[in-house]
Amino acid sequence: MSDFALEARNLCRDYNIGGGLFSSPRVLNAVKHVSFQVERGKTLAVVGESGCGKSTLARILSLIDAPTSGELFIDGARIDLARDGMTREMRQKVQIVFQNPYGSLNPRQKVGDVLMEPLLLNTTMSAKERRERAMQMLIKVGLGPEHFNRYPHMFSGGQRQRIAIARALMLSPGLLVLDEPVSALDLSVQAQVLNLLADLQDEFKLTYVFISHDLSVVRYIADEVMVMYYGEVVEAGTRERVFADPQHEYTKKLFAATPRADVETIRARLEAKRAAA
Question: Distance between CA 56 and CA 235 in Å, rounded?
């Protein structure tokens, strides 16, 4: 088995934008020749501003969309979604957690049914086995058996994201693609969900691709950082290297535009204000 849980080679994703009465069709290059590797059990954070192509990349990595060109490998095996279509084996390898948990949960389904559905569609487990596994996963994400028969609208945003994470883990994937999973949550709840993700990664030996625009979150959770700009990777490296010594001008501007909340920075701001008064 490969040392890398995920490998991308020159991934591209193009979209044909239809022309109007007085304009010709054009091609939008959403992802341009993206290559990277993620070691098993590690976290790659993909950062960039809105529209940089990171969510398009997330859809390719989670096997929702096929790339226009390039190669994708999961656990050393090449994945060709356009040729082979989605298989049960592929679905068990990778899952995605979206930004809006309520939008990704069926409001008419009880939580227990939401969790058991992937097992019903992709395994031969009995109803009893599906129920037992769903109960176990609820507990793993910090909820309880009493939540099994409740509907999504009866939970807070943080609880709904825990349910979405539990559902993503029901098939025991080795790879999770997390597309802005905490950006819609309050800061205190963000910390709880990030701690949960860290605990689950350790317990299940998970590999994460973490899509985010929040650099404070990235600094907390990432092992490797990849910066995207207009569909291209402009910088990549370890978290420590990228944050300590960004090389690309876009990365420097991205970091400079992010307010820092540490004590020394706040003191420096106050002193600057006093000096200017």
Answer: 18
